[in-house]
Amino acid sequence: MNIALGGLVFHPVEEATITIGTTKGGWVYAGQRPCYEAKTPAFYTMAAPLTKHDVLQVMGGPQEETTEGPMEALTSLDLKELSQALMDSDLFSKATDGLPGTWEVRTLTHAEWLVAREQNKINLNTGWTERLADAPSSNHRGAMMDGRPRPSELLGPAASQMAAIAVHPRNPQVTAITSVPHDRPLPKVVARLALTPLRTNAPKRVPNNTDVWKNVRTELLWTTVLGIIPSFLIPILRGMGSYATEGWVNLLFGGLCAGFFTGAIWRPRRPVLRYDDVGSSSTRVSQ
Q: Which residues in 146-171 are b (16+ Cβ under 10 Å) and which e?
C-alpha cells in the first residue's frame, strides 16, 4: 500500500538481497570489487525524481510557479532540509505510526536504488544522474551490506562530494556510480526521496582490507604462465634456443609486460562476498 506524505507518494519496496559489483578479476574492474551481497529491509520510495511542484508542496511555496519535469536545482543540502521538513510534520507521525521501528526520510542508497529498480518501483531517464545518500568511494571496500547510507570517511576534495548513480545515455540497463558536489546543483542531476527504516543494529560492512599475499601469489602465477613462460618458449620453438639464454633480460622484460597487460583485462573471477559469511570482526577479503 502506498504512503502519501506532504503531497509526495511513496511506493512499497519489498525486502530483498541483491548482488552488487562484478566478479571479473582484471585490474580495470577493481573499482567494482569486491562483489558482495546487500540485504535491504522493506521501505518506500518515490517512483520518479522530485519536481519543482513536489518541492513547493512540501515547503509551502506558491503553486502557480510550478513547472513539470525533474528538478535539477536541488543540492544534497537542500534534500536534507526537505527531508527534515517532512519528518517534522504531523503527517510524518501519522504515516509511520503503524510501521514497525523508527523511520526516516532521505535519498536512496546504492543498494536501495538497485533493489527498487529490480522490482520496477522507480524510473530514471537515460542520460540522467541521481543523487544518493552514500558518501563516494573508489571501490566497494567498506560498503554497508544492509543498505544503510555509507558515511563520509574521505579527506580532501572528495569529502565535499556525494555518491550518485548515472544511467547510460542510450541503454537504460547500464548504470555507473559517480560523485557530485553536495552543495552545488549540476545539469541533469536529480534526486528522489525514500521512506526507510533506521538501521539501529551494528553495521555489517564489506571488509576494508584485501588479502595482499594471496593477490601477490595469484599475480605471480598468472604473470609467469601467461607472460614469462611464453616469452621464453617462443624463441625456443622457432629454433633460436641460444637467444633464450643470451637475451634472457629482454625476454624477461617482455614477459613481465605481457603479464601486466593480461592482468589489466583478465584474471580468474573472484568469489561473491556473501552477507552471511561476513562477521562484525571481519577485516580482510581477497579481491
A: bbbbbebeeeeeeeebbbbbbbeeee
Q: Among 176, 226, 209, 199, which Cα is nearest to 287's?
A: 209
State the chain's mean pLDDT as an integer: 91
The phi and psi torsions of 211 (rounded to 5 degrees) equal -80, 90
Average pLDDT over residues 178-184: 95
Q: Which CATH class is domain 3-203?
A: alpha beta
In sequence order, what are the beta bridge partners of 114? none
CA-CA distances (angstroms) from residue 284 to 20, 33, 82, 138, 165? Answer: 18, 13, 39, 17, 27
Residue corresponding to grid cell 509526495? 8
Q: Is 218 exposed, middle or buried (0-12, 13-18, 19+ CB in 10 A)?
A: middle
- Length of the chain in terms of residues written: 287
Alpha carbon 36 to chain centroid distance? 11
Q: How far is CA 67 from CA 34, 63, 191, 202, in A?
A: 42, 9, 16, 43
Give the tens place of pLDDT for each residue, 240-272: 888 888 899 999 999 999 999 999 999 999 999
Q: What is the structure's pLDDT at 281? A: 44
Cα 198 to Cα 19, 202, 222, 235, 248, distances in angstroms:
22, 12, 45, 64, 62
Domain boundaries, the chain: 3-203, 210-285
CA distance 205 to 74: 30
CB 227 within 8 A of CB 55: no
**Pairing outcome for strands 43-45 and 194-197:** antiparallel
For residue range 195-245, what is the model confidence (pLDDT) as tens digits?
999 999 999 999 988 888 988 999 999 999 999 999 999 999 988 888 888
